[in-house]
Design a protein that fits this description.
- This protein has 2 domains: 8-138, Immunoglobulin-like (Sandwich); 159-375, Aminopeptidase (3-Layer(aba) Sandwich).
- Helices cover 25% and strands 26% of the residues.
- It has helices at residues 181-198, 215-224, 258-268, 283-290, 293-314, 350-357, 359-375; strands spanning 15-25, 29-36, 42-47, 50-55, 58-59, 65-67, 74-82, 85-92, 104-107, 115-121, 159-164, 202-205, 229-236, 247-251, 325-328, 339-346.
- Helix 5 packs across helix 7 (359-375).
- The radius of gyration is 23 Å and the shape is elongated.
- The two termini are 29 Å apart.
- Bound molecules: zinc ion (ZN).
Amino acid sequence: MVVALAPRNVFAVPNVLRSIRTGLQPGGKTRLVIETASRPSYTLSYGDKQLIVNLSNTNGKTDIQTKLANGTLVKKISQIQDDSLLQVSATLSSMIDAIDKKQIMILEPNGDNDYRLVIDFIAGTGKGINTTTTSAATSTAKPVANTTQQTTHPSKQHIIVIDAGHGGKDPGCIGKGGTQEKTVVLSVAKKLKKTLDSNGYKTFLTRSTDVYLKLAERAEFAEKKHADLFISLHANANPSRDMKGFSIYTLSEKASDEEAQKLADSENAADKIDVNGFEQFSKDIRVALSSLQQHAVAELSEEYANGCAKSMNRASIEQQKGPSVRHAPFAVLRSTVPGALIELGHLSNKSEEKLLKSDAHQNKLVAAIAKSVDAYDFDV
Ligand SMILES: [Zn+2]
């Protein structure tokens, strides 16, 4: 049944533009900040050397403060009002690539500030930008009426890094039947790569053989590949042989519970020399890690982890008792790439050790994880 309902926000009180400013961030990033009276609802589109922020149900204002900092990519800002749609168009000094969701955040009001839509970007080559869908704003800087604005969703191939935990001299945990964690997770990682590749993703493995890699190397690998998602695969062991089921972890400097902390300690122990792995990162990444951007990465990781847990539940894969998603300071997750660490099951449990070794169960795990990747919302 099709019922022509007016969009919900037609009757809502319009949002009001308050200010626009730009600033230079560490690593030479340009930051565009659009302040509005209430929470902004936005999409992005792109023109030639142009970034357009489409704010729905928003009234522009010509007399607002616009502060453009020196040295950013933004040369000029203009506003185009098209009925209730406000386009904030930034004329840039260079091309940019389609902006990743993790480079965008909405900040709540604080102090003298109202809501702020914060967008970070650097110069690029137009990657992921559909240039056939240009905005009304590309042809003129004057206010334009009755122009249909199409939203450009970058049709970019998403990059996924799969990390098979442990390897080489580090076997990970070992089941009573002798099954080694490093072998099980490598087998699952390879199967997952095959599935994701055939589903249209560009997938990389941190290791495809039985080699030892430092945790920081794995995280940095994901950075270098500009991955959109990082999935680290592990299997668990517990002194209680009854304990079984999968669990999923995201990065947090504070563990969600004692058990999560213990697990992070044992997974991190692989690199006794360099538990943090933090010092090895290039300066740019360290800056990003300590910046507000981390907030956005944490949110996306949480979103993925929750979706993954749901997908595993749907596939009737046994879940460890307690919350499906936990948090702990896993060194391998310390990067600017959203992601999660999946403990596929317990090798310390006799029946689960058998399952984890079996092709059929590995395929089941792979199918569930692949579905969680499909369900993840990569685009802005
Ligand atoms: Zn492990």
